[in-house]
TrEMBL record:
Pfam families: ADH_N. It comes from the Eukaryota. This is Alcohol dehydrogenase-like N-terminal domain-containing protein. PANTHER family: ALCOHOL DEHYDROGENASE 1-RELATED, VACUOLAR PROTEIN SORTING-ASSOCIATED PROTEIN 11. Keywords: Metal-binding, Oxidoreductase, Zinc. Signal peptide: none annotated. GO terms for molecular function: alcohol dehydrogenase (NAD+) activity; zinc ion binding. Residues 45-128 form the Alcohol dehydrogenase-like N-terminal domain. GO terms for cellular component: cytoplasm. The keyword Zinc applies. Its cofactor is Zn(2+). InterPro entries: ADH-like_N, ADH_Zn_CS. The keyword Oxidoreductase applies.
Length: 160
């Protein structure tokens, strides 16, 4: 089996006996999702792991998992990108969130938090941002890893 780097958000398949969790994943652009046992990746000092309580599965999940949006998609692809969950683990450098916080995650945008639009609270219109879905490398059906928590407020918001 492939070894994880010291810090990675890639899902690497494990045996069911040694896995931390089992996701449903597409392994290629055809066929149905299959059970995909894996170990939780390590988190860096500024990362957060969120246990997913609810996630939507929409048409964009189907298009993405089938490789219709990006023919260079990296598999496995674990659909579901509109997430509500609980902060499960935080890196040692994270100060804005704590274990147990309820959060909702922005499904498709990275925001700079420095442009005029972000400063006004319109971060969905960020002029420097980019569309980045929380798919394959960053999410599974059990937990999601938010890298670089300095951008976490733009990515997730407390919903308690």
């Amino acid at each position: 089996m492939q070894q994880l780097p010291a810090h990675s958000v890639y899902l690497v398949q494990e045996s069911k006996e040694t896995a931390d969790a089992v996701a449903y994943a597409f392994l290629q652009n055809t066929g149905e999702p299959v059970q995909y046992p894996y170990k939780y990746p390590n988190i860096a000092d500024d990362d957060v792991r969120i246990r997913i309580l609810y996630t939507g599965l929409c048409h964009s999940d189907c298009l993405h998992s089938r490789g219709l949006w990006d023919p260079n998609i990296k598999y496995p692809s674990c659909p579901g990108h509109e997430v509500v969950g609980l902060v499960e683990k935080v890196g040692t450098g994270v100060t804005k969130f704590k274990v147990g916080d309820k959060v909702g995650c922005n499904p498709q945008r990275w925001m700079c938090q420095t442009c005029d639009l972000c400063k006004k609270g319109d971060n969905q219109l960020c002029s420097k941002g980019s569309v980045q879905s929380l798919y394959q490398e960053r999410q599974d059906v059990i937990s999601i890893y938010v890298t670089n928590s300095s951008n976490l407020n733009a990515t997730c918001c407390n919903i308690m």
